[in-house]
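Why do we care about 3D structure at all? Because function follows from shape, and shape follows, mostly, from sequence. That is the central idea of this module. The next example makes it concrete: a single protein chain, its amino acid sequence, and then its structure expressed as tokens.
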Amino acid sequence: MLSTSKYITVPYDETDISKRSQELAALLELSNLLCWSPSLNDVLHNGLALVLKQMELDAGRLYLMDESGKYLRLAASLGVNTTGLKTVSLHEGFTGKAARTRQFIAQFVSELPDQARVKLLSNKGFLVVICVPLIALDQVVGVMNLAARKMVHLTPQAIDLLIVMGNLIAVAANNARLNEELKEKARQLEEQKAAIQFFAYTASHDLKSPAVGIFGLTQRLQKQFGPLLADKGKELCRQIQNAASRIESLTREINAYIAAKEGPRRLEEVDLDQLLEALEREYGPALQARHIGWRRPASLPVLRCERLALTRVLQNLMDNALKYGGPGLSQIEALYQETETHHVLGVKDDGVGIAPAGAARLFEAFQRGETAQGTEGTGLGLAIVREVARRHGGQAWLESQPGQGAAFFISIAKEQG
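And the structure:
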């Protein structure tokens, strides 16, 4: 056909397929039905119902292999009382034989070798039984057991159709099982995440109060009994206060990190000019005391973002520059640029800089660079920056070389959902 045609086009039409081939139409209907079945239970019941309808059979049962691989457990049934039929061994009856030998089996009920099973099925009015192994990826998933109260005409095409329908049900059952397992694992992860978040909030809250109390009591001790303390005692008091301050700072940063990662989003219109003016007022005394210059763009846009989160980002980046810029730090600059999709903010300094190797690691929680050694910090500042960027559809990154300063950037998507 293609030898006389450059190409062939055939419009998709289920009606035409049904006219050309009832078998293909049945497979198409089953495939569509299984795609819309959201759970394993729906897959099995809907699939079985369609098979019974297509083959004009009276009853059916679907068995799935258990984890041991020795038994078939009833998973779905239609048109039959399943008393005495809940579990089948692989070495029991025609159902077990179909799974064990991977064979399609059809026979009269009266010719079954197990007389107890003959009596059981005859009492239910069945004349013919059919067993179809459910095979997916060359593994026996289960068995489809069908029954009729009248003679059944099984042509080779009908047998092939049943085998392929069984394969479709087996594949859909496997997928539904995997989907349910993934949902269960996701649910467990959500529970663990909620438990960890609750623990982090609780622990940080419970730690903060004692830390503040220790600091206050030590301060009171110094004030009231300072003259009576030896130099060693005074030094110990200072160490206790420093430790209490670090604990309080860490708990505050942990809460900020959790809020940046998991807290509810509160988007609003934020004027960058006003935000940087407030930042300049806040850090002005520290900059003047160290004779550090400050520059920022003359005109900036209004962004749609979380005001408190963006303020925290800029504060963290300013703190980093002041803490880790080194003794030669003389200039800090706020940067802004934009792309078609994002606003890009940055804070650049002319300090000691950071080696590119391991730069990405700095944005992980509790990671600190070589230039931070000997300087107090929680190791959460840049992790908070990264989480804020993610919540705003952007990224956080560093551009730096040793001895050439460092520039930290955050991008914010222009379109916020």
